[in-house]
Amino acid sequence: MQAEIHPVVYDAKVTCASCGKTWVTTSTKKELRIDVCSNCHPFFTGESARIMDIEGQVDRFYKKLSARQTYVEQQKAKEETLNSPDRSIDDLELSPRATDALKKAGILSIGQILAKLGEGNASMLEIAGFGQSSLTAVKKKLRSLDFEVPEVPDPPKAVKAPKVVAPEVTTDAPEADAPAAEASE
Predict the structure, then answer these.
(1) Is 166 among the domain residues?
(2) Burial zone of 92 (CB within 10 Å; 0-12 exposed, 13-18 middle, 19+ buried)
(3) pTM of the prediction?
(4) Shared-domain flag, residues 39 and 60
């Protein structure tokens, strides 16, 4: 062995800061201070179950569980309000002209729009300032919000009779009759 390459070994005094117990061991330091020893550590004393209850892990679990249930209930309530027919027509984000036309006609909620659509497209188109493009936009928005848009067939339009074109009558006589007309003169 080489000389002077090994550290100096001492009989070190070990002191526990928690319980104050001391003992002697060998170490490269003369004195050691530790936070917890086998005399006061909960694992060795059997008090680990008591510490877990003191920390309230069960209580924390129930707190997390109730927070999750509250969150789920809030999400359900939010979804129900999203599909509520009592929502304002402003939530459809239509053009200002279409929104104003509906408000002037007294239609202020999505439920009223659905009722009017149940009467047919013609009833919606009768609203002043509300045209076919607005009707199409309303239906698209309602479907995107998961509303069931009633599809009422419009009454069939009256079939127009085709125009009868009269044959053209010419006043000119055929050329064969022309000499006879000249002879009579």
Answers:
(1) no
(2) buried
(3) 0.42
(4) no
**Total residue count of the chain as it appears in this document:** 185
Whole-angstrom distance, CA of residue 11 vs CA of residue 31: 9
Q: In this predicted model, what pLDDT tens digit does every residue of 64-75 receive, in sequence order?
A: 889 999 999 998
Domain containing 61: what range?
A: 56-82
Tally of structural domains, the chain: 3
Tokens 């170490």 found at: 27
Q: Which long-range contacts (CB under 8 A, 24 or more apart) does 92-99 make?
A: 92/138, 92/141, 92/142, 92/145, 93/141, 94/134, 94/137, 94/138, 94/141, 95/134, 95/137, 97/129, 97/134, 98/129, 98/130, 98/134, 98/137, 98/138
Q: Which runs of consecutive H residues, i.e. helices, occur in the chain?
A: 42-45, 48-55, 57-82, 96-104, 110-118, 121-125, 132-144, 178-183
Q: Is residue 164 part of a domain?
A: no
> Would the pLDDT of 31 be above 60?
yes
